Structures
1.
Amino acid sequence: MAHPNRMTGSLPVPNVQALAQACNRPDEQIPERYIRPEAGAEEVISGYDSTSAIPVIDLSKLCDPRSSHEECVKLGSACRQWGFFRLINHGVPDDVIRDLKKDMAEFFELPLEAKKAYSMLPNSLEGYGQAFVVSEDQKLDWADMFALVVRPNESRDMRFWPADPPSFRTSIDRYSCETARVARCLLELMAEDMGVEPESLLEVFRGQPQGLRMNYYPPCRQAGEVLGLSPHTDAAGLTLQLQVNDVPGLQIKRDGKWFAVDALDGALLVIVGDILEILSNGKYRCVVHRAVVHPSRERISAAVFHRPCREAVVGPLPELVKDGGGKARYRSISYLDYMKRYFSAKLDGRSHVESLQIDL
Ligand code: OGA
Ligand code: NI
């Protein structure tokens, strides 16, 4: 059976880091394919207003029996109303985060030829390159990606795991263990909040499959006219995002407005993905998000996607739709089919999850 990351490739596109070096000189224009009229078209809430509005969840409070109930109510409300929150006191050791950040930054600084040793192969979405480019006339995102399948361990394809910097593989492995632990803990509490047995939710994520996507957004002189990553929802249960340097760029959408998410405050950013919206029968909302770029500074981020196991069926959890529990609001589909559909189209807001929605 095809692995989700090996079923559909992306059309080849230029390396954006190299392109940026060539066309960030004065008098140079960036190619038309990167110009996005929609980039500045909608209101963006930023600064104190966005920071004070976006929910913050404290994992140490969630895990402490004295405060767990109260914090779990906050968690549920963040997942229902935002599909996004900042997670503090997550327990991922500082050195694990520091080492990953350092190795990622060093990797992207390597000469292009060295990075190309890990290029995505045709019909693959693992390695260094770009995803979601499905037609020659599609607009392009101002970023390079580096994607790896990190869990379960036997699904790792070490050809794509960089040997340079030398500590990179260990850094990824340690970060992967820590984030898997955090994700499991969150899923268990989310099950409690949804009113289902934790096992029935955890079973969908058996073996804790995990993918890592490192995003590199070069600076762009015409930053206001490009997008680093098109608006999308994540094809995952839960994504944990790390801002690797202090350049902001992530924006999340709520009630038709974009909220800019500050960079670097030690928090992990938690994104509710499509699959959790469907499993929860719409109790939780996946969040549409995008990334913008900076005029003079590079931006780096790392997203860890927690995905269903290969055999999983993605559909409302039976406990939520049986015995008068409510009607299913989404069709069920095999996880592999879901991923095939996701990777064979361009990124487009909530389109994937909406294609499974049932009009009641
Ligand atoms: C992603 C993503 C946003 C960012 O990789 O799916 O949404 O801030 N990244 O880089
Ligand atoms: Ni995303």
2.
Amino acid sequence: MALIAANWKMNKTFNEGITFINEFNKKIDDDSSNDILICPPFTLLNEIFKLKHEKIKLGAQNMYYEESGAFTGEISPLMVKEFCEYVIVGHSERRNLFKEPNQWINKKVLCAVNHGLKPILCIGETEEEKKKKKTNEVLETQLKACLKNVSENQTKQVVFAYEPVWAIGTGKNATPQEAQDAHAFIRSLLTDMYSQTTARPLKILYGGSVNTENTEELIKQKDIDGFLVGGASLKVESFMEIIKKAKK
Ligand code: PGA
């Protein structure tokens, strides 16, 4: 079963979000074998939680690693947990625009699993790192730093997302082979860090310009277990088509 996640980023006002979910609910196929996840802005979590079809799961796009306190503008795991099963951590936009270091992302992963949330841990190389053939090195550094002190049992709660930074929002997706190689490498790292029994069933999503045209080829790859979709998740039609085409 694939996991298809929508990352709406900083898009959709309240009314736009409600219109989407009402239309989307009607198109959900009860036999659909995929897990469907929507990560809207925080302002929509409460209402979408109330309106959504039961097959849709909810996720937050970010979270702080403290339960409460003087952290203006942040949101806590206790607040996220009221509506969400998942939370995205370490997205490249958080890393690059908001300067989040691996140490914070590590604290967020630990905080999420300790509160029973499933973190979607994003890792990926920049264009420059890819040109210098440093993809594996970057993936290893990010993965190991972000999973520091995360036990084997806790790792089972984590979803991984390979998101090459050069592919995000650019229309340039990784080729199925490039994505497969990165996913296989991530799984081999997880096997070394934990065990094969733990690593094999872990979900590794691909993200970066996923669209209705490239879904089928990407999902055929052995180690691609689903997608984190940005731009193409903003329209009901394209997101639904991706879900339908992403049969594992
Ligand atoms: P994109 O974004 O599909 O618009 O490239 C993916 C993501 O950043 O999660």
